[in-house]
Amino acid sequence: MLLTVKNLHAQVADEIDKPILKGLNLDIKPGEVHAIMGPNGAGKSTLSSVLAGREDYEITDGTVEFSGDDLLALSPEERARKGVFLAFQYPVEIPGVSNKLFMQTAVNAIREENGLPALDMFDFDRYAQSKIDLLKMPKDLLDRSVNVGFSGGEKKRNDIFQMALLEPKLCILDETDSGLDIDAMKVVANGVNSLRSPDRSFIVVTHYQRLLDYIKPDFVHVLFDGKIIQSGGFELVHALEEKGYDDMIQAHQQLQHNQK
Amino acid sequence: MSSIIPRKMSPAARQFLDKIMALSDALNERMAVKALIEKRQAAKQQLLTMGLPTRKDEDWQYTSIQSLLQQAFSLKHVQEPIELTTAQIQTFLPNFDTIRLVFVDGFFSEQLSGGFDFIPDGLSIEMADADAIQTINLSEKADAFQWMNELMLDQGVTIELDARVSVEAPLHILYIQTQTAEVLSPRLQVRLGQSSQLQLLQQYVCLTEEVTTWVNGISHITVGENAQCKQLVLQQLSQNSFYFNHQHFVQAAASHIETSYIALGALLSRHQSVATQQGDAAETDQDSIVLGRGQQVMDTRTLTQHQALHGHSRQLHKLVLADEARGVFNGMIEVAKGAQKTDGQMDTKSLLLSPKAKVDAKPQLEIYADDVKCSHGCAAGQIDEDQIFYAQARGIRRSDAMQLITQAFLLEPLDKWQTQPEMQAWLTKLIVQKL
Fold first, then answer.
1. What is the CATH number of the domain that holds A25?
2. What is the pLDDT of residues A227-251, one digit of tens each?
């Protein structure tokens, strides 16, 4: 198992007694693509943030094991070095830092973790160009400041480019499709599809089914009220498309009521 | 004659002033040039009347000079220049060609200077010429530090550049202080003829961190019609030193000046830059990079006087303050009544790396013309946690992320040196070493 999430409970660090994740379970094997869907406020972004190690959240219960490590005990950079990658819902602008310097630093951090020698400027350039070609990214991408002056679509593309450079084991896409037009969404989907491999897994967090039509996940989970209430295959996406979340939520609530 | 009542001073200020006046008296005996003696004595009267500034003065509200007043200084207590080797000063020198004038404790060192082959016809450099240095007349608005410069005036450099002459190599004036508790009152006068071009680099250093000095300088630069002057002041004094500098550019029509101040050293520093656009369509670019830590107090001030048509000015000031460092920025853009079509813009951005660091920024506009475009921006804040997390999520250590982001923030004004990569690389190195 690559990732095992057991009974995960989490809340915003300074909002005690307002739990967001309330006992979430998830198992992911290498090579699998999992989609997490759910209505607004279900806890989708919280799950992404907690897995990547954002400090705004507090874990109150549960465990997360990643490749045999206790993920929750690691700092965000240690998680990234071990192969967890988060594509942000809102990629951050860093004025004055070129994409090239930023990503050279990042790539070398991860190479250091894997016992590999650092890439110098020329080796990095060559490596980065190969990924730019693979993903059909604009040639000047490396020379621009990190996300500064980028459109929403360009920012997401830049995140996918970073993902390609870092070659992570687990890619978490946190509502990467939000605010994207159809063309930008295709670019993101193509990026994900070209990075799929037997030893790379994905968690695609999304509100809409459209991105999933392009990515075709192996498993689909519906997150509601901090828990996964239903899991299934790709067919679940279309069931949701036809009936919406309401039927599924009502059925779930009815079931809980009956259990009590 | 109006009767002016001398200002009351604190005992510490009074004592300080008495001591430096005694230095001035001794200088009058040692260097008995009549015109200079008269200037020093006039400065003495002026100082007795105006006293030394306190934080009750508006221009000194955020900058206390108490740490300076506690010191005792001497003036040229070494009668002969200290001999240094080029190897000893190598660490301060850039790795590109310059016309280099080196002053050790105020004495010109021919041995350490060099690059004279790069001096073109039409560039004249005069040193320690009493007649030359006394031609700057202080304005009635001059502050106490300018008068103290005049009080202890003993040396200077005058640079004249003929019309239409371009100097390829930067003119580098390096002041090295080797003696503790010495005061240096450098005075620089530069005249650029019509359509001439000069790059000027003024660098202030202490030989070691153990040397505590006080540099109190005045520069006066007149820029002829269509002439260009790119000036850089590099303040790298030891962390216990004191630095005051007042520079004034007077610009003729279509002239262009670029002035940069990089402040890395000194316990207390104050750099005042004044640009007066007397001719139409003049351009003025001013920027600064200030890096403070420990207990440093770093004051940067600009005064931009638009007095003619179609004047253009741009400013970008960046401060990074760590520990308990304090930054002060005061920028004034004055647009005179007839200065229509003025386009002036001033930006100050500060990054505070510690909760005890502090910055006081005061941008000001005074506009007496009705068809102008002027703006100022001012921002201060801590490092953005979202930026740090974004870098961490890519495997970059928190400390490296902070370094990366801080460096990018602070170095932004160096972008203008892109056409001179060697200069840009050298300045980047000097600043990054201190981060």
1. 3.40.50.300
2. 999 999 999 998 888 888 888 888 8
Give ∠ CA A80-A83-A84 in degrees, rounded to 5.
60
Provide the shortest C-alpha distance from residue B388 to chain A (in Å).
9
pLDDT > 50? residue B295? yes
Task: Give yes or no for a contact between B225 and B255, defined as CB atoms under 8 angstroms apart.
Answer: yes
Report the residue of B390, B394, B398, B411 to disrupt the A interface, i.e. the one with the largest count of A CBs within 10 Å: B394
Mean pLDDT (whole number) for A131-152: 88
Per-residue pLDDT tens over the stretch B337-367:
999 999 999 999 999 999 999 999 999 999 9
SS3 B23: helix
Q: What are B296-337's pLDDT values in tens digits? A: 999 999 999 999 999 999 999 999 999 999 999 999 999 999
Question: If you measure CA to CA, which chain A residue comes closest to B403?
Answer: A97
B121: pLDDT strictly greater than 60 = yes
Domain containing B183: what range? 75-384
Top residue of A45, A49, A77, A98 to mutate, by most chain B CBs within 10 Å, is A77
Q: Do B365 and B405 lie in a common domain?
A: no
Specify whether B118 is located in the same domain as B153: yes
Q: Would you say B426 and B337 are in contact if contact means Cβ atoms under 8 Å apart? A: no
Q: What is the pLDDT of residues B380-426, one digit of tens each?
A: 999 999 999 999 999 999 999 999 999 999 999 999 999 999 999 99
Report the number of distinct structural domains present in chain B: 2
Distance, C-alpha B124 to centroid of its chain = 23
Please name the amino acid found at residue B306.
Answer: H
B270 and B322 inside one domain:
yes
Look at B398 and A106 and tell me if their CB atoms are within 8 Å: no
User: What is the domain range of residue A209?
Assistant: 3-259
Which three-class secondary structure state does DSSP give residue A47?
Answer: helix
Across chain B, what does the average pLDDT equal?
A: 94
| ipTM computed for the complex | 0.95
Q: Measure the CA–CA gap between A239 and A250, rounded to whole angstroms.
A: 15
CA distance B410 to chain A (A): 9
Residue whose token pair is 């490396």: A142
Taking the Cβ of residue B178 and every Cβ of chain A, the question of whether any pair is shorter than 8 Å is answered with no
In this structure, are B233 and B271 located in the same domain? Answer: yes
How deeply is B70 buried, as exposed, middle or buried, from its count of CB atoms within 10 A (0-12, 13-18, 19+)? exposed
Residue B2, pLDDT > 50, answer no
For residues B290 and B424, membership in a common domain is answered with no
Q: Is residue B378 part of a domain?
A: yes
Q: What is the residue whose two structure tokens read 């520079």?
A: B247
